Amino acid sequence: MSAPTTHRAGRVLTGTPGEELRDAAVVIDGTTIAWVGPVADLPAEHGAVVDHGDDATILPGLIDTHVHLAFDGSAKPVEVMLAADDLERYTIMLRSARELLSAGVTTARDLGAPGLLDVRVKQAINAGSARGPRLLVVNAPITVTGGHCYFLGGEAETVDGVIQAVRRARRDGADHIKIMSTGGNMTPGTLPAKAQFTPEEMQAIVDAAHHYGMRVAAHCHGTPGIRNAINAGVDSLEHYAFTQADGTNRPDAEVIAMTAQSGQYVCRTVCAALGTFLTYIDKTADEVFEPGLNRRLLDAGVKVVAGTDAGIDNAPHVEYVYGLAGMAAFGMTNDEVLHSATALAAESLGLEGVTGRLAAGLDADVIVVRGNPRADLEALRDVELVIARGEEYRPEFRSRRRWNDEVSQPQYVPA
Ligand SMILES: [Zn+2]
Fold first, then answer.
1. What is the predicted ipTM?
2. CATH number for the domain including 16?
3. Distance 209 CA to ligand 1 centre (A)
4. Rounded to the nearest whole angstrom, what is the distance from the C-alpha of residue 346 to the centroid of ligand 1?
């Protein structure tokens, strides 16, 4: 048993909303957090102290509940992936994992990858032969024939067919199940505003997954597909865009109330791809989005978690913080955004006893940033040290984009 290591900073955010310790420390013993508190109360068995300085903040490792490691975040990630063989895809995924870790993300859920490669990447990270966040994986999303992301290999339909798809995913190493409740923007010919599955198929998927204790995430853009997902009892609603046939979003008050009532988590996947998406449908942000929708959701009692759809068109994994800044731009306070990216996200993934907070007994998922992210989320761009399940990592990649009012034209700043 090696000696513990203590990390000290002027500020420690424990992950309990609004809780901030001054002149405080985190004691890490192997892969576990042994103690958190003010330096004045430091226990005798604390080992060497690494002082990160008075202007540093120590906080829980961040969580992205919705990524795609196999998409490289270039202008044409699907084309790149389809042209690649599995070895090339695996290489892309390993880089994506290190980009996330560089952004301070110590837990990520991959919501769709081809050929069981997500399981292989997860195994490599767990074995210590690759660096990356703790991964939860789903294999290929379950979709209808020719439906959204069919090219990932997850086509299934009829009640019997979708039940078999769930059992197959479990056999092949999936942690959770992803279903495509509507069409999507990345798959030409599918219809984002319309439901893909019948309510009976949706119910069969959720029942089969829950039978095995697997959570279900539903991709749902349009309102009918959101309703189907809520009624089937999925665990999280991804995108939740209320997309109409013309591409604009029209949030539905009744559906928002249903969501608050059901307690299902919502991940709006606000991300660096927003500008690209607007060019696809040739509309401005004002025409498409309700500016204060995140505020409205929180005020209604909906649990909103952070997830960025990292990897899709022009949304590299390293740009995680862009998504958090976007959540703030849609009306959340910095404390609410931090909660959605740590403890609440962990809860949504069933990991509340594992990560998302700094507390004795949890896994040592810890990041150190310069500045105070409670005052300015941009501080999260200056990640100095990442500790993922006790293993230290120095960021290799830097985010470059900053949120601005003209979301249709993301600004690029030098790395
Ligand atoms: Zn996605």
1. 0.95
2. 2.30.40.10
3. 19
4. 18
